[in-house]
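WARN no homologs supplied; continuing
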Amino acid sequence: MDTDERTVPGIDPAHDPFRAVESELGLLLRRSHAMSRQLTRQVHPDLEPSASPLLARIAKTPDVRASELAALFGVGRGTMSRQLARLDELGLIERRADPDDSRGQLIRLTELGTRRSEEVRAAGRAFLRRALRSWSDDDAALLATQLARLNLDLGAPQDLG
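OK structure emitted
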């Protein structure tokens, strides 16, 4: 069945496209969480799924402060501190004093953390390649463009009332 012909049970996308988007996003998020849980276990069996995007962000922005990570992920400093402590215990991150602020610490991946983070990202890309193997490169690029547009719009301040 072509993706254009796919219908959500009980939802007519032509009649209520926002309900169809809501349904599809819900399913996508559940599947994404399951994939993240599986991939994170490859880094370490005791690691929480939330560690995977955290490792990816630290890899992308080495020497980041915990407060910046907490703000980015929308969690409190205590929560971030616990997550970072676990990554530290597993030897995946290292901390050093911030030369510009003696109270702060800069966080980066260790060699092991870098290797494991790259392995998880490669496994995630391989998973997506397998899942989208029947898609053309143009269709995959269109999906990436539309997802970027969605993320941009979702990140814009909105009145939720």
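The radius of gyration is 19 Å.
OK
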